[in-house]
Automatic annotation (TrEMBL), chain A:
Record-linked InterPro entries: Nase/OxRdtase_comp1, Nase_comp1_CS, NifE-like
UniProt-recorded name of the protein: Nitrogenase molybdenum-cofactor synthesis protein NifE
Source organism of the structure: Desulfofundulus luciae
Domain Nitrogenase/oxidoreductase component: 37-421
CDD domains: Nitrogenase_MoFe_alpha_like (cd01967)
Top-level taxonomy: Bacteria, Bacillati, Bacillota, Clostridia, Eubacteriales
Keyword set includes Repeat: no
Family of the protein in this entry: Belongs to the NifD/NifK/NifE/NifN family.
Transferase among keywords: no
Keywords (A to Z) from UniProt: Nitrogen fixation
Pfam families: Oxidored_nitro (PF00148)
From TrEMBL, chain B:
Signal peptide annotation: none
Annotated PANTHER family: LIGHT-INDEPENDENT PROTOCHLOROPHYLLIDE REDUCTASE SUBUNIT B (PTHR33712)
Pfam families to which the protein is assigned, alphabetical: Oxidored_nitro
Annotated organism of origin: Desulfofundulus luciae
Enzyme Commission code(s) on record: 1.18.6.1
Descriptive protein name: Nitrogenase molybdenum-iron protein beta chain
Length: 452, 492
């Protein structure tokens, strides 16, 4: 089968139509990569821990950008390194900064110290400083070693963050018997209320969430996390490793599930109910799924046969591809910035041969794909959004900006929003302006958008 | 007015609203000695970002130019994300993708390979190489790397094609200065690299707008057009970062507009260079003056009546062209608006934050409205800021309580000071001040970089007389929204 777009020879293998694409490799320099850095990944994972001081140890820019994660604003502390510290060392400044931050925010339960490129290069012993500070302040001061140039992408940042959580926070409370009917959710970030939807469903099964890493993680509830009966892994990239380690350390079993799409949500709930040995309590699940399908039906009719291209972070590829399948849409591209082999294998299963999968696509490749294929929808992050718009292609931001997409309600939201997006007049206005009326041939009219 | 229900199935808004993580669960008295940022090692909510952003902003204003960032991927991603959020436009910026090996062995391979990949993928008309803290700390010898990249490129695509693409180096170590200085350095690097020959005078003026938005640059061009003055706008983002949607387009996609390389080459032959923002663009103007005798006119930002007057007067003086009736009428309309709304604006207490040039421009304008500044926070430390503010206050004959002037401090200091004020009516600043405005229950008028939480501000000017009218309307209306019940706003 033919590779659908031009790729630079050095990137051969990253775009596959049958196989699993090459992944976890370095990005080529000079291409307009969509990837981010270690610090970005670590912030993505840890930003929502609200009872900790987040101290970015590096130049002021890194702190400035770290103030926003998943479209939420956070208060960040920074050592704002200047030339003096770069030359003479930043250790003293870090010590002072930790002490001052805690005295300005006295009710904090921990301090997270993120390192950056600059600190990684000048070679400070951040670990020792944190240890000293921790002893003198009497609260955990945790180094998160995430200089931007480490690893190949932000994925490594997730791993570093997960390791820091496991090492310093998870299960720090005294051991005890498993709390009854309690679960943790690993790899759930509570985007626009997703977690609330999931929680409501779990509550109907009679289950409580101790902590959700990291959409609803606090120093206090992570300390109790080792007393859960089950770990539910939602986002695999961030959750799977943690789940394995927690199984090793505390003997907590885990299940990888997804709450995107009706079938997946239903299967997830049934698996969880089965685990707690109460299949009868999941009797409503099928009915609820069917009811939601009925609610979504008017939108599904409008979406049948439409073509969608997916490009976003790693492990949600597979489950989102299935969810879009349930919308009746055809997935014509599935890609990610930093997927690992496991992620691609998983999503290949629900895609079938012939659907291109792409790893670490850069701007030019995406442009070319959109230009040639003109899918009816591209799903991705903010950086791809405006490129798609310039080409007149509807775009859905994921992680989403409006309403929850997880759970049964979330599926209806997704259907409704996608239908509204794809059918919006603006795309017709963009494509059929005066040019058509005046009989001018458009540059690439053979790729014209399907009329509605 | 708050929406209680989201428009689709699910959870009500008040349960998913954007959470501000407060400094403490409830407000507590801070140790007073730690409030001024000068007394602290820690910076809380910085009011500035790093130099590379300013340089990338500049490069994106050049026609078919792509910034190449010599650093880790995040340095590019974060800035692209920031630009996308502000301008709602794609921002094509290439990264050298530093990994551990670059940190150890230096970034030569990344630059040489990167320039080659960038060229064969995108065929840009100019590449702006922007350094970061990592490449500066490693001590990359960028000048020789660029030579190697050029030699390599000649081998790959032939000397003719390779030499057609200028490469401009902007040194921007992120641990010094701020985005404002990054732009300033870019302005100098571009003229130094490209405007190398003094030839026939071209009768034009150079404009280095600084970190103004596309709408502002359009307004400046409007003023120039009415004056009948031809200009070279260096870093003209008015079209590149506000491009029309007109698919289908060719690949690779380049937005229309931008300053052409030829225009930049011609800048040594102009009558004068206007650096509209003294902190962002002065370096370029001064260089041209020193080297080629092109007169430098630095500031003030053309915001408000006197700011715009100063710009037009300087234009008149340099080009000898009169200020046309049409612009005088625009001026008259702005002054009329000032008079019509004076009863709303006078004696109102205002706090202003942002980049120093924006703060200076806006301060002068609010003094024209009869407002009383309480605190003025410039995010980038500057040698002249405090003096400039004092000069503006003196010029306006301001007799109220002297405002707190924060020169390069953080937002924590600004916020803590405002919390102690007995009265505050308005905050003018960028989106970073949203939390402060919510916490203090004071309206925020958005101005400057960055504005990502509202739409349209990048298209709406604050400069010129017409921009002044828009900013004035925004200021008055936001105070009305906050302070007056509906029945009292029927006849204003």
């Amino acid at each position: 089968m033919k590779i659908p777009i031009d790729v630079i020879p050095e990137r051969a293998g990253h775009l596959e139509v049958v196989e699993i694409p090459a992944c976890d490799r370095r990005t080529l320099p000079g291409v307009v990569s969509q990837r981010a850095c270690l610090l970005y990944g670590a912030r993505w994972m840890l930003a929502a821990i609200r009872d900790a001081v987040h101290l970015i140890h590096g130049p002021v820019g890194c702190a400035y950008y770290s103030g926003t994660v998943r479209k939420k604003n956070y208060r960040v502390f920074s050592t704002a390194l200047g030339e003096k510290e770069i030359v003479f060392g930043a250790g003293q400044k870090l010590e002072d900064a930790i002490r001052e931050a805690v005295s300005l925010r006295p009710r904090s339960s921990a301090v997270l110290v993120y390192t950056t490129c600059a600190v990684g290069l000048i070679g400070e012993d951040v670990e020792a400083i944190c240890k000293r500070a921790s002893a003198s302040l009497g609260l955990p001061v945790v180094p998160v070693n995430c200089p931007g140039f480490g690893g190949v992408s932000q994925g490594k940042g997730h791993d570093v963050a997960a390791a820091a959580l496991l090492e310093h926070f998870i299960g720090r409370a005294p051991a005890g018997p498993p709390l009854e009917n309690s679960v943790n959710i690993l790899g759930e970030f509570d985007v626009q209320g997703d977690l609330k939807e999931i929680e409501q469903l779990l509550q109907r099964l009679g289950l409580n969430i101790i902590c959700a890493v990291s959409g609803r993680a606090t120093v206090e509830n992570m300390a109790r996390a080792h007393r859960a009966g089950l770990n539910i892994v939602h986002c695999g990239r961030t959750g799977r490793w943690l789940a394995r380690k927690m199984e090793e350390r505390f003997g907590i079993p885990w299940r990888k599930v997804s709450f995107f799409g009706l079938a997946e949500t239903a299967a997830a709930l049934q698996a969880i109910a089965a685990f707690f040995n109460r299949p009868r309590e999941a009797a409503w699940v099928e009915k609820e799924a069917e009811a939601s399908r009925q609610r979504a039906l008017p939108y599904l009719r409008r979406l049948a046969g439409r073509r969608v291209a997916l490009f976003f972070g790693a492990s949600r590829m597979g489950s989102m591809a299935r969810a879009f399948g349930e919308l009746g849409m055809e997935v014509v591209l599935c890609g990610s910035q930093f997927g690992c082999r496991e992620d691609y294998t998983e999503s290949r299963c629900c895609l079938g041969r012939g659907t291109p999968m792409i790893d670490d696509a850069h701007q030019r490749e995406l442009e070319e794909f959109l230009h040639r294929y003109r899918p009816d929808l591209l799903v991705g992050g903010t950086r791809e959004r405006f490129m798609a718009h310039k080409m007149g292609i509807p775009f859905l931001v994921f992680p989403q900006e409006t309403s929850p997409y997880a759970g049964f309600n979330g599926f209806v939201n997704l259907a409704r929003e996608v239908a509204a997006l794809v059918g919006a007049p603006v795309w017709r206005l963009g494509n059929n302006g005066f040019m058509r009326e005046e009989g001018e041939e458009m540059v690439a009219s053979k790729y014209s958008v399907k009329p509605l | 007015m708050q929406l209680k229900e989201i428009p689709v199935t699910g959870i009500p808004y008040d349960q998913i609203k954007i959470e501000k993580v407060p400094a403490a669960p409830e407000y507590c008295e801070r140790p007073a000695e730690l409030i001024p940022s000068a007394n602290r090692a820690v910076v809380i909510n910085p009011n500035r970002t790093c130099m590379p952003l300013g340089a990338m902003w500049a490069v994106l204003g050049v026609r078919k130019a792509i910034p190449f960032v010599q650093g880790a991927q995040g340095c590019t991603t974060y800035v692209r994300y920031t630009f996308c959020r502000i301008f709602k436009e794609p921002a094509v910026i290439a990264t050298a993708s530093f990994h551990e090996d670059a940190a150890v062995f230096g970034g030569r391979r990344n630059l040489v390979e990167g320039i080659r990949n960038l060229v064969v993928r995108y065929w840009p008309e100019l590449i702006g190489v922007v350094t970061t803290c990592s490449s500066e700390i490693i001590g990359d010898d960028m000048v020789s790397f660029i030579k190697m990249a050029r030699a390599n490129l000649r081998k790959e695509i032939g000397p003719e094609k390779a030499d057609r693409i200028p490469i401009v180096l902007v040194n921007t170590p992120s641990f010094a200065g701020s985005h404002v200085e990054g732009y300033d350095r870019a302005s100098r690097a571009f003229v130094e690299t490209l405007a190398t020959t003094k030839g026939e005078p071209n009768g034009k003026v150079n404009i280095i707008p600084g970190l103004f938005y596309p709408g502002d640059i359009r307004e400046i061009k409007h003023l120039l057009r009415h004056m009948g003055v031809e200009a070279i706008v260096l870093f003209d983002i008015s079209d590149t970062l506000d491009a029309p949607l007109e698919p289908p387009m060719s690949v690779p996609y380049y937005p229309p507009g931008g300053t052409a390389v030829g225009e930049i080459r011609d800048m040594a032959n102009s009558l004068a260079t206007f650096a509209l923002q003294p902190h962002a663009g002065q370096a370029g103007a001064r260089y041209l003056e020193r080297k080629y005798g092109v007169r430098a006119v630095v500031g003030p930002p053309p915001v408000g009546v006197q700011g715009t007057d100063a710009f037009l007067k300087a234009l008149r003086e340099i080009t000898g062209k009169p200020i046309p009736k049409s612009l005088l009428q625009e001026r008259g309309r702005l002054v009329d608006s000032l008079a019509d709304t004076l009863h709303h604006t006078m004696m109102k207490k205002v706090a202003i934050m942002g980049d120093p040039d924006i703060v200076l421009g806006v301060t002068r304008f609010v003094l024209e409205m009869g407002m009383e500044p309480v605190a003025l926070a410039g995010g980038t430390a500057s040698k002249t800021f405090v003096h400039d503010v004092e000069a503006i206050l003196a010029e306006a004959g301001y007799e109220g309580e002297p405002p707190l002037i924060i020169n390069g401090g953080d937002l924590f200091e600004f916020e803590e000071y405002l919390k102690k004020q007995p009265r505050l009516d308005l905050i003018i600043g960028n989106s970073r001040a949203v939390d402060i405005s919510r916490e203090l229950q004071v309206p925020l008028v958005r101005v400057g970089f960055p504005i990502y939480d509202r739409f349209g501000y990048q298209k709406r000017p604050i400069v010129g007389y017409r921009g002044g009218e828009m900013l004035l309307a925004e200021i008055v209306n936001s105070m009305l929204d906050y302070q007056y019940p509906d029945d009292r706003t029927q006849q204003l």
